[in-house]
Amino acid sequence: MDSSQEAIKQLNDLMDQVDEHLKDTFEILHQGHPSETFVRFLKARDWSVSKAHKMLIDCLTWRLQNEIDNILSKPIIPIDLYKDVRDSQLVGLSGFSREGLPVFGIGVGMSTLDRASVHYYVQSHIQINEYRDRVVLPATSDLHGRYIGTCLKVLDMTGLKLSALSQIKLLTIISTVDDLNYPEKTDIYYIVNAPYIFSACWKVVKPLLQERTRKKIQVLHGCGRDELLKIMDYASLPHFCKREGSAKLSRHSSPDIDDCFSLDHPFHQELYNYVKQQSQNKALKIPIKLGSFHVDVPDPDPEGTMIVQTIESELHKIGDQNGVTHDDD
């Protein structure tokens, strides 16, 4: 038995000893693939069994304490509020790579994250994670006849400004939730439409990242279309990658069903209807309360904190060079 198989076996033996509540939420987490899930947590902790075990127990405890298993039956209502979240937290599933991996587009530069409270943005983010893991990935695994447990993300930096400083706190919360509870779920992050401000920050942040993380980030030329077409069909490209110069169009210039951020896009319609249906099933048992679903956010790890501080100081430096006040765009 090689060392990785031995580590998986040790982690499995430790998990056999946990109480039933943790085992139940672990079943929802692993979706029938415990070994592959052990591998994700082991990779995230450099194959230390004891650290991976602690990380996994912490994750399962977080899931129980915050009722994450039920989050897909907790709609963000009313629909106008959900639409505000969608219009200001730009994320969507644009399609699949040729190998069957879901491709998520994320509008980093144009997301304003200013139309709802932090709790709604965190709730929406976790719902998309859970829908990906419990619905999208099992469906694409069935289609391809093999286990697919990860996705690709294309990050659109169009419109990135110094005012991004104001969003760093919320983005740190969301990335901490992902790092600690959804580790190793993204194979590659493709960065497209990167302006100078991104390049300046990337130069100072890149050396701080662990090699494992650094290898996952690819900064592509322009809108990235030609590179991305090597791994996915044109139909699966996020809308902001489909033609050079399209990035310069206003996000709101033409409502388009092809816009994977839009509530009208098939992915968001399916997700919205799924959550609505789940909530109706639950409502037969307990009345639904209005209001956001509060999730406790774990503290970021020291590496994450250092990276955020570096980005902040770099943005301030750029602002000072350009004579910009920091609460301006």
Automatic annotation (TrEMBL):
Record-linked Pfam families: CRAL_TRIO, CRAL_TRIO_N
Domain CRAL-TRIO: 78-238
PROSITE patterns: CRAL_TRIO
InterPro entries tied to this protein: CRAL-TRIO_dom, CRAL-TRIO_dom_sf, CRAL/TRIO_N_dom, CRAL/TRIO_N_dom_sf
Gene3D superfamilies on file: CRAL-TRIO lipid binding domain
Cited CDD domains: SEC14
Protein name listed in UniProt: Phosphatidylinositol/phosphatidylcholine transfer protein SFH9-like
Protein's organism: Dioscorea cayennensis subsp. rotundata
UniProt lineage: Eukaryota, Viridiplantae, Streptophyta, Embryophyta, Tracheophyta
GN (gene name): LOC120279104
